[in-house]
Amino acid sequence: MLELITDFDGANLGGGSVRGNRVLAKVRRDPITRADGSTHDYNYHFIFGLRNLGDAPLSVEVCLECEGPDGLEQTPLVYATPALDQDFAPAVFPARGDGARRTWLQPTLPPHGELYLANTFPRRPEALLAGLDDLAAQGGARRGVYGQSLQGRDLTAYYYPAAQGPRQACVFITSGFHPPEPDTLASEAVMAWLASDQAAEARQKLSFCLAPVANPDGFFLGAQGHNAAGVNFYWEFQPKQEERIPEAAALWALAKRLQPSLYFDFHAYTFQGAAKQAGPYLKPLWFYRGDTVRGLAQDMETRLLELTGGGCMRGASPLARSTLQARLTTRYNTVTFAKYHLHLAQGVPACREHGCQVVSRCVQAMLDADLIRRDQVLARPWGAQPRDPLRKLRAVSEALWEGPVKGFLRPLLGR
Q1: Residue-averaged pLDDT of the chain
Q2: Are the beta carbons of 47 and 79 closer than 8 angstroms?
Q3: How far is CA 264 from CA 129, 172, 174, 281, in A?
Q4: Is 168 helix (H, G, I), strand (E, B) or coil?
Q5: Can you tell me the distance from the alpha carbon of 45 to that of 47, in angstroms, rounded to the nearest whole number?
Q6: Is the dihedral of CA 399, 404, 409, 410 positive or negative?
Q7: Could you give all domains of the chain from N- to C-terminal order, each with its CATH number?
């Protein structure tokens, strides 16, 4: 006899039924997000368990949004674990998919055994938060609660003050907006780096603040990309709507206290294949004010593109005005790399290493240029700047050229 398990923190499934040794299930559907003229659909992930109540091994057929393997030509990335107190690992049983929602799996369960399945690398909420606390303690960080989520969970940040004092520039890092994306791997790796001798100069001259789990309710609820009110507040970052999105209000209040010179927001590709590359979203340099900050941003972009082999995202998405990164650049002239995507297909260790490298490379750019004080990087407030009437036109033109125009021309030119 077979049972479907969905009663644990972080479970993510849109419903299912068991018929003998066959499971028919659907992917959970959260609200579609529409912001800045774009539509964002995050409804592709699943995390659930199976339990064999019998005395013999049981071969199971799992059909998610499909009737079987026919017509499914891709081998999806699937992770599994026999128990929730163990880490998920790449699955070794047959699996087929269409690169989107339709997935067919054929695991075998041991007698009276369980198996938990996911098409991402799940971060169990309690273990994730406990591990972050341990890393903070190793690095001498101060743990602070900067607010409460909609369901009353702590919003936690870790502060690493600069040894040279409060006037030093701040590096601000977030992750965990979209729970199925294992971008917290990057935050963990950066916190481990900050606790090491390799980060000694950076800790001396710069301050750091990490908010690794921006959406804790989403992790506990198994949400696809939303908070408990169904708001995807990466794209709809509306801090004035505190009743629906207290996470955004608290994060903006924290950002205003920090006035960061550099901001990283990590995300991760999960089910996507070779069509997506790990790398940053890059917005035009016209968004930054002053030659000093533009030059710093250019240097950082060069270092990151060397790491990714040129992989990045340009076009309309990096220009989204409804995001935290846009607010930071407008208000504080912050150099931002959001969303910076890891790629799970490269493996969990590689995701950690990649996340640490991108932060350390950009930090090194600040150290090499000796731009380590807040007043060096923080330009005058926007209202005090002379308005450039062509700035937005240049930025929009560059975004259109790098995005839809090149996309249209590339097939015509055979590139």
Answers
A1: 91
A2: no
A3: 20, 6, 6, 10
A4: strand
A5: 7
A6: positive
A7: 2-14+23-118 (2.60.40), 125-394 (3.40.630.10)
The pLDDT tens digits of the residues spanning 34-60 come to: 988 889 999 999 999 999 999 999 999
CA atoms of 246 and 155, how far apart (whole Å): 10
Give the angle subtended at the CA of 133 by the CAs of 213 and 81, to the nearest 5°.
70
**Tokens matching residue 411:** 């097939």
305 DSSP 8-state letter: H
Nearest-angstrom CA–CA distance, 354 and 185: 9
Contacts of 157 (CB under 8 A, 6+ apart): 143, 144, 145, 146, 209, 210, 211, 254
Strand partners, 115: 50
**pLDDT above 50 (res 181):** yes
Interacting residues of 121 by C-beta distance below 8 A, sequence separation 6+:
79, 88, 182, 185, 270, 344, 348
Place of tokens 């205003």: 256
> Which residues contact residue 3 at a Cβ distance below 8 angstroms, ignoring those fewer than 6 apart?
18, 50, 51, 53
pLDDT tens digits, 349-390: 999 999 999 999 999 999 999 999 988 876 544 433 445 556
pLDDT exceeds cutoff 80 at 89: yes
CA pair distance 10, 129, nearest whole angstrom:
13
Q: Is the pLDDT of residue 178 over 70?
A: yes
Q: What is the pLDDT of residues 129-143, one digit of tens each?
A: 999 999 999 999 999
Task: For the chain, give the percent of residues with pLDDT over 70.
Answer: 91
